[in-house]
TrEMBL record, chain A:
It comes from Gemmobacter aquatilis. NCBIfam families: accA, AccA_sub, PRK05724.1. This is Acetyl-coenzyme A carboxylase carboxyl transferase subunit alpha. Belongs to the AccA family. It holds the Pfam family ACCA. It catalyses: N(6)-carboxybiotinyl-L-lysyl-[protein] + acetyl-CoA = N(6)-biotinyl-L-lysyl-[protein] + malonyl-CoA. Component of the acetyl coenzyme A carboxylase (ACC) complex. First, biotin carboxylase catalyzes the carboxylation of biotin on its carrier protein (BCCP) and then the CO(2) group is transferred by the carboxyltransferase to acetyl-CoA to form malonyl-CoA. The keyword Lipid biosynthesis applies. It comes from the Bacteria. Residues 38-292 form the CoA carboxyltransferase C-terminal domain.
TrEMBL record, chain B:
It is found in: Cytoplasm. GO terms for molecular function: acetyl-CoA carboxylase activity; ATP binding; carboxyl- or carbamoyltransferase activity; zinc ion binding. This is Acetyl-coenzyme A carboxylase carboxyl transferase subunit beta. Its cofactor is Zn(2+). One of its GO terms (cellular component) is acetate CoA-transferase complex. Component of the acetyl coenzyme A carboxylase (ACC) complex. Biotin carboxylase (BC) catalyzes the carboxylation of biotin on its carrier protein (BCCP) and then the CO(2) group is transferred by the transcarboxylase to acetyl-CoA to form malonyl-CoA. Acetyl-CoA carboxylase is a heterohexamer composed of biotin carboxyl carrier protein (AccB), biotin carboxylase (AccC) and two subunits each of ACCase subunit alpha (AccA) and ACCase subunit beta (AccD).
């Protein structure tokens, strides 16, 4: 278990309980269960307390937790016959973007998402979930295919943002993001997005311009990272707590602003402490959202999607 | 829209702005260091007469130079919610807004106009980098939607002069949502069969480049304009990659296939009209110093 900085007191208690039990295993005469159970209880209370009212910055940390289920975990668990389709037919295949044909509850769909990787090797291979232009262009290709064959599109969003690299800029990542967003607004099939971790700026919009947008309870979605915002507006990257607060990047605030449609509850202690339950909850939400859109005509799906974004911004937050 | 009152106003505005600037004011070219007489510089559309460096130009000055006789009608932009997030960094967002309004004399970072260019009716939009870095918030989104709707209604092409540091952070996610929102507006225009020409000016970066500013039927840039998603400083800081000479500048993008043309500001009017009239299947333009239209522009 990887603990976050704010979970340190919890790590200590859970560590102590673990230590006691290890001692008992080594020495059969020791009876520690009572003491260990008391520690467990204490840990439970603390966990509840810590997660009761997470600050926006803590949510950012939870959203980035390395043990959270990632795109690949959802695809493996919720979809069958996943058949990755690679490449942008132009330059390369972007390993930060997973995508292809799959079945969701037996229904054929196109699934696309950013994958961050889960160890050093896969993280590097996946470029930490940061797409290059090829990734957006692959997504465009897949969305076109979905449109042609009438398949719903499911996107799983989890990215720190676009990749600030020389090659990505030279190959026109701004244009690639713009075209991917444009494509999202053109396809006559249901488009459903779930922000499962980090919704980082343009890199997220390019996939999440959808008919229905859901966010996991502790995921975040923002125009800029709190660190980036802090360094620009506060001239001090260490002010990320203040920036996270000011940016209103939590699922709860985004729902109030009318930017997202639904929040998917996470187990106590975040998705990383209940991966299976989290994945199941996302599956349920996908099922509901797909049902809401099934049977709608292509032109209605396009019109509604466009209207949804045209209408955005009419709601502010209470003072 | 009342033609007469709107016709008179820009004239009065230009009188005032002339008076505010003392005749003996000099500007130093940031590129070559030459001291330029203000009048000489503004007559040259804020392009250095010595080295051709393109300095910033306000949307109002740009439109005055663009439209026949310097006359245009402002298209009304619906007011968005003010400060929807109650954003506060070291300053309150409304205070930053007030400061920007005072410094520029403008309400927001985008100006929408309709008028004629060599007798070609167009809608034009210009972003004001002097106003909070031209940042894209809900007003800018509203301006693009209003411009596209007006263009569709009057069956005119749309020309957009982009200049922005990116999205307006003080509007958080709502500024990010202007990426899809402006894209919808451009789609409406395109589906009506109307041309959309983007002129990228220095600098155009971030979410603006990654949405409406890269979706033109024709993409033109002013010389040496910085055009990118992630800026050179961000790349150098995060990836520590050494960047080549001229990286992310207009000419570099042209070489890399990301632009149609790089065009000098003084040749822009002529070029825009040439392109637009062909795309609109109109006869060649009548060029030259055209007088102020005697009546309202053709509808
Ligand atoms: Zn100069």
């Amino acid at each position: 278990m990887n603990y976050l900085e704010f979970e340190k007191p919890l790590a200590e208690i859970e560590g102590k309980a673990e230590e006691l039990r290890a001692l008992a295993r080594a020495n059969s005469e020791m009876d520690v269960e009572k003491e260990a159970a008391a520690l467990d209880k204490k840990a439970d209370v603390l966990l509840k307390d810590l997660y009761k009212d997470l600050t926006p910055w803590r949510k950012c940390q939870v959203a980035r937790h390395p043990d959270r289920p990632h795109c690949k975990d959802y695809i493996d668990a919720l979809f069958t016959e996943y058949t990755p389709l690679a490449g942008d037919r132009n330059f390369a295949d972007d390993h930060a973007i997973m995508g292809g044909l799959a079945r969701f509850n037996d229904q054929a769909v196109v699934v696309i998402g950013q994958e961050k990787g889960n160890d050093t090797k896969s993280r590097i291979e996946r470029n930490f979930g940061m797409a290059r232009p090829e990734g957006y262009r692959k997504a465009i290709r897949l969305m076109d295919m979905a449109h042609r064959f009438g398949l719903p599109v499911v996107t799983l969003v989890d990215t720190p943002g676009a990749y600030p690299g020389k090659g990505a800029e030279e190959r026109g990542q701004a244009e690639a993001i713009a075209r991917s967003t444009e494509k999202c607004l053109q396809i006559g099939v249901p488009l459903i997005s779930v922000v499962i971790g980090e919704g980082g700026s343009g890199g997220a919009v390019a996939f999440a311009t959808a008919n229905r947008i859901a966010m996991l309870e502790h995921s975040v979605y923002s125009v800029i990272s709190p660190e980036g915002c802090a360094s620009i507006l506060w001239k001090d990257a260490e002010k990320m707590r203040e920036a996270a607060e000011a940016l209103r990047l939590t699922a709860q605030d985004l729902q109030k602003l009318g930017v997202i449609d639904r929040i998917i509850k996470e187990p106590l202690g975040g998705a990383q402490r209940g991966r299976k339950e989290t994945i199941e909850a996302v599956g349920k939400a996908l099922e509901t959202m797909l049902k809401e859109l099934s049977g709608k005509k292509p032109e209605v799906l396009i019109r509604d999607r466009r209207q949804k974004f045209l209408d955005m911004g009419s709601r502010g937050l209470a003072a | 829209m009342n033609w007469i009152s709107n016709y008179v106003r820009p004239k009065i505005n230009s009188l005032f702005s002339r008076r505010e600037v003392p005749e003996n004011l000099w500007t130093k070219c940031p590129e070559c260091g030459t001291m330029l007489f203000h009048r000489e510089l503004s007559d040259n559309l804020n392009v250095c007469t010595h080295c051709d460096h393109h300095m910033a130009i306000s949307p109002r000055d740009r439109f005055t130079a663009l439209f026949d006789g310097g006359v245009f009608l402002e298209v009304k932009v619906p007011e968005p919610l003010a400060d929807p997030l109650h954003f506060r960094d070291q300053k309150k967002y409304p205070d930053r807004m007030k400061a920007a309004q005072k410094a520029t004399g403008e309400k927001e970072a985008m100006l929408v106009a309709e008028g004629e260019v060599f007798r070609t009716p167009i809608i034009a939009v210009a972003q004001d980098f002097a106003f909070m870095g031209g940042s894209m918030g809900m007003y800018v989104g509203n301006a693009i939607v209003a411009a596209a709707e007006r263009a569709v209604k009057l069956k005119r092409p749309l020309v957009l002069f982009a200049a922005a540091g990116g999205a307006r952070m003080q509007e958080g996610i709502l500024s990010l949502m202007q990426m899809p929102r402006s894209t919808v507006a451009i789609q409406l225009l395109k589906e009506a069969g109307l041309p959309y020409v983007v002129v990228l000016t220095h600098p155009t970066t971030g979410g603006v480049t990654a949405s409406y500013a890269m979706l033109g039927d024709v993409q033109i840039a002013e010389p040496n304009a910085l055009i990118c998603f992630a800026g050179p400083r961000v790349i150098e800081q995060t990836i520590r990659e050494k960047l080549p000479e001229g990286f992310q500048r207009a000419e570099y993008l042209l070489d890399h296939g990301m632009l149609d043309r790089v065009t000098h500001r003084k040749a822009m009017k002529d070029e825009l009209v040439t392109i637009l009239r062909m795309l609109m299947r109109q006869t060649p333009a009548i060029r030259g110093e055209l007088p102020v239209p005697a009546d309202a522009p053709a509808r």
